[in-house]
Amino acid sequence: MQYHTPATFADAAAIASGAEGITRFLAGGTDVLVQLRSDLVEPDTLIDIKHIDGTHDITKNADGSWTLGVAVTGAEMSEHAELSAEWPGLVEAMDLIGSTQVQGRATLTGNLCNGSPAADSVPAQFAAGVTLSVTGPDGTRQVAVEDIPAGPGKTNLAKGELVSAVHIPARGAGGGDAYLRFIPRTEMDIAVVGCGVNLRLDGDTITEARVSLGAVAPTVLLVENAATAIIGTTLDDAALDKLAAAAEAACNPISDKRGTVEFRTHVAGVLAKRAAQIAYDRAKG
Amino acid sequence: MSKVHVTTSINGDPVEFLCDPRETVLDVLRDRLGLTGAKEGCGTGDCGACSVTVDGRLVCSCLMLGAEAEGKEIGTVEGIATEEALHPLQKKFIEYAALQCGVCTPGILVAAKNLLEREPDPTEEQVRYWLAGNLCRCTGYDKIIRAVMDTAAEMREAS
Known about the structure:
heterodimer, A: 11 helices, globular, B: alpha+beta
C-alpha cells in the first residue's frame, strides 16, 4: 500500500488517476480503516487529503452560504454554534454517527462517499441541498449531492475524482431542517430508516421543501412527491397524510435483520411527518 | 515495502518512528514504542479501549494510521499520572473499584480526562453520552460513572 499526502486537490486527483488497483482517499478513516483492518478492502494507493489547505475549515461566505473542508469532523460541526443554529438537522444527523471517538474523526464527505444507503448525514445533506466541488484530472466541477450515490458502496465519481469541498446553501429567512432516524436501540446504531426534511416558510405557508429518505432503497432518495405534498400548505393534517403517503410510495427497501419491507415503509411515513413538523417548528423560530 | 518516517509528540515527549503505511497508531504505540496502555478490543472503533487524544481530540487509535500522526500531539494513558502522583481520576477509579479486568480502563481514563478538560461540571447524562463509545463488560458502568462524577466534583473544589 502506497501512502500519499498531496498538498493540493489537483495533485490528489493526478495521483488517483495514475494509480493502478484499488485507490482510497483518507479523511477521517472511520470506514476506510475498518475495511482495511477487516481485510475487506486493502487499497493499493491511499491518498490522505488532510494536508491540503482548507480541508479543516468551516467558512461562512458573504452570501450566507457555508463552505466546509472535506476533513471537517462531526465534532467540529457540532461545536460550531452558528452552523448548528442555522442547520440543526444537518449537524444533528452528522452527530448521530458513532461515539465521541468516531465524531473526532468522521466527516460528511466520508459518510457520503462510503456509499451506504443508511448513512445518517446523507439524507440531511440531500434535504439541505448541499452541493459539492469535485476535483478530477480535468479540473473542478460542481455536483449536487444527490448525484453522488450510485448504489450500496458505490458513487458516480469517476476514476481520479474526489470531493474537494462541501457547500451548504445560505439558510436565509424562514427556513428550518430536521433529520430523524429509527434504530432499535437508543444510540450508536445503523439507521433502519432515516428521513431529512428542509423547508422554508412565508408566514405559515411552506414555499420550498426538500424531503429525503435513507435506508429504504439502494441509495438515499430525494423524494420530490413528498416535497410537493407539503409545498403550499401550512403542514396541516391533510398535508402530513399526503407527505406520509408520498414517502411510503417512494420506498423500495429490502427486508433484513434490522427491519422488513413493510416495517421500513411504514416507518418512512411516520418519520417524514415527524421530521417535517420539527423542521416547520424550527422555521417558525 | 517502504516504511514511513514519522515525527510526532507523545505525552509531551518528541518521538520519531518508522512504520509500515498499514500500521495504526495503536500498532505503533504498542509494538514499536512499548506503550501498551491503549488496548486493542475490537480494532474497528466500536469499543474505545484504544482511546487516545490527538491534538486534544478524543479518537480511537485503531482507526488512525501511524503515518497520520506526523506533527500531531498524542496523549495516552501513560501521560495521565505524574512522577509523584496518580491523576485524581485514577485515584477515584481505585477508590470506587470502577474496574475489574481493566482492559477498558485506560481508554475510559483518557476519555474521561478529555471530557473534564472540556466540561468541568458535567451532568451524569453528559458523562454517559461521552463515554458511550467505551465498552466495559465487567462493571455495568455505574461505578465508572460515579467515579467520574466524584472526580469532577473534587477537581472543581480543588481549583
